[in-house]
Predict the structure.
Amino acid sequence: MDDIVYEKVMHQVNKILSIDLESYKEEQMKRRLGSWLTRCGYEDWDAYFKFVLTSPEDLLKLRNFLTINVTEFFRDRERWGQIEEKIIPIILQSHSSSGLKTEGLRIWSAGCSTGAEPYTLAILLNELAPNKPHYILGTDLDKGALDRARAGGPYHIDEVKNVSPERQKKYFEIEKDKAYFRSSILKSVTFKEQNLITDQYEKDFDLIVCRNVVIYFKNDAKNEIYKKFHGALRKSGILFIGGTEIIPRPNEFGYKSFGVSCYIKE
Ligand SMILES: C[S@@+](CC[C@H](N)C(=O)[O-])C[C@H]1O[C@@H](n2cnc3c(N)ncnc32)[C@H](O)[C@@H]1O
């Protein structure tokens, strides 16, 4: 796709869906858009946009394709093992020793898609520190994904494959290939629409989980987000990122490496 066509597509996408592709890696996005157009059976973008504007269902497909909302519970299980066995206990310990024992933790899943990630956190807190007023926030820019998140699904059975049989039984209702997060802790997650690039962040988080979101962004956008996360964390708060992501010089943003995929605010 040449630059002029890409400019036109970016403009249309922003106008129709309010998604600004300017922050996304250009070559990767051009390739994905090209294969999407072919997959939809079109050769030129004008005809495709004319079509999607008459079909809300296809417009939604375009939005889902652009925002890439693939997710699952306990995605990269070993990494979640580290959160369960090391990170959350450390945070709970530091709350106890600083006189915040009765306070709940403040945790944010940024770019939470349909909610598997914040509900994974809700399961862990329900087991590690039950009956405390925890605040778990899940944010995303995709309204459709947030609607499914608030409803607790349905999730495809593959999205719960990393959940142990005991937890599946306790937290899910499973019908054929669909799983519904039915637990009473469904209400323990607050969902909010938010664009990580343009919107303000809440503050004082003990843990921010942002996985498989910024990998699609250009370096400038990514760095800006890491800086804003730093401002949103409490002192010694922890940032947990995706399995294939890395912050090469964490000290430039005020973090120190803290185990695999984790960084602590200095
Ligand atoms: C691949 S999913 C990751 C879901 C979850 N974090 C995980 O790892 O399973 C990426 C999510 O990031 C969201 N996203 C993309 N750009 C965003 C932005 N600028 N602000 C907020 N969310 C964004 C998408 O809508 C999508 O739901």
